[in-house]
Structures are given as C-alpha cells and as structure tokens.
Amino acid sequence: MARYLIRRLNLFLATSLVLFLVMFIVTSKFPVEHTFALTGLQSPTAQELTQIAQDYQLDSSQAHQFLAYLQQRLSGNLGISATSQNPVIDELTAVLPASFELGIVAGLIALVLGLPLGVLASLSKHKITQHTIMAITLTGYSIPVFWLGLSLSLWFGVQLGWLPISGQINLLYDIRPVTGFLLIDTLLSDSQYATSAFIDALLHIILPAVTLAVLPFTVVVRITRAAMIAIMEQTYIKAAEARGLHTSIIVLRHALPNAFIPVLKNLGLMLGAFASYAMVVEVIFSWPGVGAWLVSGIYQRDYTVIQGGILAVALIIIFLSILIEVIHTAMNPLSRKELYAAN
C-alpha cells in the first residue's frame, strides 16, 4: 500500500507540474505586457521592472524562466489583482471557503437523497416506481444548470418569496470569520443574533446547493441502482437471505456499502464537470466563491486573477480526484487484491 501511495503522490506532482507548465506557456501568450501578465502591475517603476526581471529570470532561457515562475507561484506569489490592487493569494483564500461550503452541502444533498432513491429503484417490484425514479434522474441530468438555477430563483425566490436568491447571508449580520464556513461560523459566534444568522445563512445556501446537487444526484441514483441490482444477485446476498436476515439488514450491512464503491469512483470522475457547474451556479446566485470571482476576473481581463483561479481550481480537482481514487482502493477488496498482486 505504501508503494501505491507513493505512486499516487508522484502522479499528483507530475500532473501539477504539467499544469504549471501549461499556465507558464499560456501566460506568455496573453495580449498584454509580459510583466503585467505575471504580476498585475500596470505601470511599474524602473525599480519594480528590475525586481520583476530578477524574480522571474526574464533575461534567462525559457527553462530558467519556468523554474522561476514555478518558484514564485509555489511560494504563494500570484501577483496582484489589476482591478482591486490586492494580492491575488489574499482574494483567493477569502473566496475558497464559500466554494467549499457550497460544494460540500450540494454533495451531501446528492448522497442523502440519491442513495435511498437508487436503492428503492433497484428493489422496488413496481414498474411505475422504477420508471418514475429513472425519469426524474434523466430529466435532472438533461436540464441545463443555468436554466434550472434561474427557474428555481424565479419560483421560490421571486414569485413565492420563500428563499433568498443571491448572496451568502444578509448584510445586517456581522459574523466574525473563524473557519471560513459561514454555517459553522454563525454557530460559533457569540452574537445574540447567532441563531438568526445561522437560519439566514441556511436559507441562502438552499437554492444554489440544490441547483448544484442535481447533476451528482442523478449520477448517484443511476450508479446506485445499477450496483444494487448486480450485488443483490451475488452469492453472499442469497446466503444471507437463506439465513432469514431481514431485507433492510441485508441492504444496509452488506449490499449498500459495496454499492457505494462504484458511486464513489464515479463521483471522482465527474469532479471537473461539478466544478464547471459550480462556477455557473455561483454566478447565477451571486455566491461569493471562486467561480464568481474567476468569472469576474475574466470579464475584467484581470490576468493574474485568471491565473490564480485556474491554478487553484485545477489543483483542487487533481488532488481530490487522486484522494477519491485512494479511498476507493482502500474500500474495494478487489482493488486491494490487484494492488498487492501487482506488488
């Protein structure tokens, strides 16, 4: 297992290196001054130009320039935003928690609703129930996320007035950031309005989280259904039924844990699409996350923000994909068997 983890770590490092190389090449192709693309300084002084040339080795070969670029980015120097004149790394760290919070809530919604529906679709003897569930998942998979987000905003936010349609929390609440996750920070706050702030933050996250959860929800239902149908025909399940175990015990203790393994693998494969959907959702609901921040940088041609946002999103996707693969291998006995056989 140690050799496997080392190989996964090497894969992460190699993929990240290729990502930085691509960003280095793309940065040199931006239709602006190279120093501006690297640092975000619009009118640098002569001293600043000298410092930039020294930091990024602009007078050296391309290989030395790439190594200098890599060193600067890995040290946290992502330049400054041409729009706000603030360090990009500070802006990035400020918006990352909101995106993580939205993604986690959406993922939990997809799993909590998708797993039971997938099990129900596989075990139900009624064709109407099966077809209804599969029709819902097919519809959810086919609906464009921007149309769904706008429709939910119109129905539940504008016409019914049940839920807020923009932002993360009402600006009247002053919550001191502790973890960066607003739902947690409101609970940790010592303000007399902490409970009201938590409820308000919860109401704000419902619409964007539900919109973002539709895609993984449909995948979870379909994969769970297919996995459960195959697992319920296995010999050990038949043996458990022969011993007189109740169906709920068989499903919860034996079938569902094994059915979750392919679900986990497919969730890892769709992280890229999930991140793309998250960017659209954040823009629709004015959610202060990486997606909305990056799209704003693209509109304003803020090249350092574009670089920082792309690097952050891509590195997170690479890391989470490899992490899910490791967890999948640890959970799946067949994968561990192949792993040990290969060693």
From TrEMBL:
One of its GO terms (molecular function) is dipeptide transmembrane transporter activity. The chain crosses the membrane at residues 9-26, 102-123, 135-156, 201-223, 267-285, 305-327. Keywords: Cell membrane, Membrane, Transmembrane, Transmembrane helix, Transport. Pfam families: BPD_transp_1. It is found in: Cell membrane. It is a multi-pass membrane protein. PANTHER family: DIPEPTIDE TRANSPORT SYSTEM PERMEASE PROTEIN DPPB-RELATED (PTHR43163:SF6). This is Binding-protein-dependent transport systems inner membrane component.
